[in-house]
Amino acid sequence: MKDLSEHILDIVGNSIRAGALLIEIGLEVLVIEKVLILRIRDNGCGMSEEMVARVTDPFVTSRTTRKVGLGLPFLKMNAELTGGAVKVASEEGKGTLVEALFYHHHIDFVPRGDLKGSMALIMSGNPNVDFVLSLKRGSDAFEIKSADIKEVLGDVPINHPKVGRFIKEMMDFSLLE
Question: pTM of the prediction?
Fold first, then answer.
C-alpha cells in the first residue's frame, strides 16, 4: 500500500466482505502529539480471538482464493515505520475495529493519497452499505453520512455518477493538513 487512501480502501473491502452494513471511518489529527489516527469500525461478522491475534501475519487470511493477506500487515508496517502501531479488536457476530496510529511528521509517513476520490468511490460504489466519515482536528470536526445523502437524494441512486462527483466535492479534508 502506497498511501493512506489505499489502506482505507483495503480495510473497507474487508469489512464489506465480512457482511458489514455500517462502516465508520474516522481520521483524527492530534496536533501537539503530531499523530494521525485512522479508525475503521464495522458491524460485519467479526473474527475469533485466535484470528485477531494472528491477523497481522501476512501468511494468515480468511480468504480461500489465496494463502496470503497483506493489507493489515502492510498497514502495521507503515504505522510502525513512523513509530506508531496498529490495534485490531473484534468480536464474532458483532464486528471489527481497526485502529492505526501514525506519527505524521515522520519521514516514513505514507502520503494521504486521493482521500476524496476514495471516499466518494466507497460511498457511491456500495449503495447497500451505510458509511460515516468523520474527520477531527482539535475542536474542529467534519462528518458525512451516506444515509443522510441517500435521504436527500430520494429516488436518485447514490451510485449515480453525478452523485459520486457531488460527494467528492462535499468533503473537506483540510482538517488533516
Answer: 0.92
